[in-house]
């Protein structure tokens, strides 16, 4: 399946300007996945190319075992932050289309706002109003390997989709991070905007790139 290239860098900068895309190397990353009612760790692991057992190891405080996950919480899901089109850091996943699937469902529900409808339209050639059954949809999840000009104390970053209940204060308190540090990693971003995403540095992890 082909997807459009060339202007991908410019499009993704317009969608998310939190960290200037610089693709020098790959690194480990985490995706903050909002657990919606009806899903489970097996489903999340399948679409994010990992396993339910692996997800549990990253969320021991909130997920005691693979059979026990509450909807309405977030779980951190590990993935490899690589280079897409040599332009920006991200990972390309694949969604197997089922009858009735739409880009809106894929982005906002199945991938829990870790991608956007605009990205799905850009990296796929399907008619948004008629996605073929059993097709494979390219799903891009943005990520970062850090910014040494901000700090060299962090090496594992979380791609964190913003929700209406989020704010700079609430995220800083939950993650036990300084508000100024969060803002420096996400310059110009309003943490209370209720959409889009930010990058959250993982505490106590070595800088990777």
From TrEMBL:
<dbReference type="GO" id="GO:0045087">
    <property type="term" value="P:innate immune response"/>
</dbReference>
<keyword id="KW-1133">Transmembrane helix</keyword>
<feature type="domain" description="LysM">
    <location>
        <begin position="97"/>
        <end position="131"/>
    </location>
</feature>
<keyword id="KW-0732">Signal</keyword>
<dbReference type="InterPro" id="IPR044812">
    <property type="entry name" value="CERK1/LYK3-like"/>
</dbReference>
<feature type="domain" description="LYK3/RLK10-like LysM">
    <location>
        <begin position="158"/>
        <end position="201"/>
    </location>
</feature>
<keyword id="KW-1015">Disulfide bond</keyword>
<keyword id="KW-0472">Membrane</keyword>
<protein>
    <recommendedName>
        <fullName>LysM domain-containing protein</fullName>
    </recommendedName>
</protein>
<keyword id="KW-0812">Transmembrane</keyword>
<dbReference type="InterPro" id="IPR018392">
    <property type="entry name" value="LysM"/>
</dbReference>
<dbReference type="Pfam" id="PF23577">
    <property type="entry name" value="LysM_RLK"/>
</dbReference>
<feature type="signal peptide">
    <location>
        <begin position="1"/>
        <end position="18"/>
    </location>
</feature>
<dbReference type="GO" id="GO:0019199">
    <property type="term" value="F:transmembrane receptor protein kinase activity"/>
</dbReference>
<keyword id="KW-1003">Cell membrane</keyword>
<dbReference type="InterPro" id="IPR057097">
    <property type="entry name" value="LysM_RLK3/10"/>
</dbReference>
<dbReference type="Pfam" id="PF01476">
    <property type="entry name" value="LysM"/>
</dbReference>
<dbReference type="GO" id="GO:0005886">
    <property type="term" value="C:plasma membrane"/>
</dbReference>
């Amino acid at each position: 399946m082909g997807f459009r290239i060339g202007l991908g860098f410019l499009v993704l900068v317009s969608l998310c300007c939190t960290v200037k895309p610089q693709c020098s190397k790959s690194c480990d990353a985490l995706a903050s996945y909002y657990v919606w009612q009806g899903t489970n760790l097996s489903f999340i692991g399948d679409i994010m190319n990992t396993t339910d057992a692996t997800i549990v190891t990253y969320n021991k405080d909130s997920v005691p075992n693979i059979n026990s996950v509450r909807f309405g919480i977030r779980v951190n899901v590990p993935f490899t932050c690589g280079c897409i089109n040599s332009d920006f850091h991200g990972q390309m996943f694949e969604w197997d289309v089922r009858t009735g699937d739409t880009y809106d469902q894929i982005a906002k529900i199945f991938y829990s706002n870790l991608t956007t409808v605009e990205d799905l339209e850009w990296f796929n050639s399907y008619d948004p109003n008629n996605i073929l059954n059993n097709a494979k949809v390219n799903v891009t999840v943005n990520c970062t390997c850090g910014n040494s000009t901000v700090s060299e104390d962090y090496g594992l970053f979380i791609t964190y989709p913003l929700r209406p209940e989020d704010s700079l204060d609430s995220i800083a308190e939950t993650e036990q991070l300084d508000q100024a540090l969060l803002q420096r990693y996400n310059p110009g971003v309003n943490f209370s905007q209720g959409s889009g995403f930010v990058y959250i540095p993982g505490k106590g992890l070595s800088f990777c790139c």
